[in-house]
Amino acid sequence: MFEMTRNVLKNLMGKYSTRLYPFDTREPFERFRGTLDINVEECIFCSTCAKKCPSQCITVDVKNRTWTCDSFACVYCAVCVESCPTQCMSMYPVTKPAAGEKSLIFYQGAAKIKKPKAEKPA
Predict the structure, then answer these.
(1) Contact criterion met (CB below 8 Å) for 82 and 49
(2) b/e per residue, 43-72, with b = 16+ CB within 10 A?
C-alpha cells in the first residue's frame, strides 16, 4: 500500500502528462491537412470531387449548383482536392472545434448565366 501512495503523491505533485487542450494548443504538424474548404465561385460543379471521394461524403447537385460535404464522414485525405480540375478546393491547417451535433459544409453557387443565342445574319 505504501508503494501505491508514493506513486499517487508523485503524480499529484509532478508535471501533467497531457496537454490542457483548449487552453494549451500546439502548432500543427508539417503535413497536417486540416479542414476542407471550397471556393464556390470558381467551382464548375463537375462532380469529380464527389466521384473520387473514398468516403462518399461529398454531394454535388449540378442542376441547383449546390455543394455539400458531411464533415463527420470525411476522412480528410485530400483526394478531392488533388482531383479537382479547377483547383478551387483546398485544405487549410486549422483544426475544427469539437461539435456535439452533425454539421454539413454547404455552399450554394451562383446561377448559371445563359448566353444569348447569336442570330444568323440574313
Answers:
(1) no
(2) bebeebbbeebeeebbbbeeeebebebeee
Taking only the tens place, the pLDDT of each residue in 36-61 is 889 999 999 999 999 999 999 999 99
The pLDDT, as a whole number, for residue 29 is: 85
pLDDT at 121 exceeding the cut of 70? no
What Rg, from alpha-carbon coordinates, does the chain have? 24
Q: How many CA atoms lie within 13 A of 6 on its CB side?
A: 3
Helix and strand element counts for the chain (H, E): 3, 5
**Spatial separation of the C-alpha atoms in residues 67 and 59, rounded to whole Å:** 6
Domains of the chain: 32-108 (3.30.70.3270)
Kindly state the cell numbers that stand for 14: 509532478
User: Across the chain, which distance is largest between two alpha carbons, in Å?
Assistant: 105
pTM recorded for the entire structure: 0.68
β-pair partners for 6: none
